[in-house]
Fold:
Amino acid sequence: MAEQAGRIGLYPGTFDPITNGHVDIITRAARMFNRLVIGVAGNAGKGPLFPIAERVELVQAELAPIAARTGTEIEVQPFASLLIQFAQEVGASVIVRGLRAVSDFDYEFQMAGMNYRLDSRIETVFLMASERHQFISSRFVKEIAQLGGDVSSFVPALTLERTLARVAARA
Structure:
């Protein structure tokens, strides 16, 4: 992978909360780049469970072991701009997107096409979710937690603790 040595990858998302599916994609993407930027989107329109600063903090905490294990520099940054503008700002040549199901592909395909039209120097790479994570989404995690269900197998430990505390505080 010598030709990949200088490449910067960008994995964007709302990470509200970060799930084991996100961690899986990030772990696999970290092997492809020497620097991987995790872009945490504000996206207030989705009614986030966590404020953006706390999401950034959680993502940093959950990913520190991956960075140490892979030797990849993993940087977590919030953003509120167009994705392609953020990619340009951080110097990314590749945007990494995770796909869980065929239903994700249509939206992601359209977004990749628009991003390519905005800046053809930045490629989009799709990574399929691992079989055990294909059904996990942040939205489902929040809904299950708010209804008292067990989400311990869907999110990392610190995120589980914070999610349960946040849901309890809102009840």
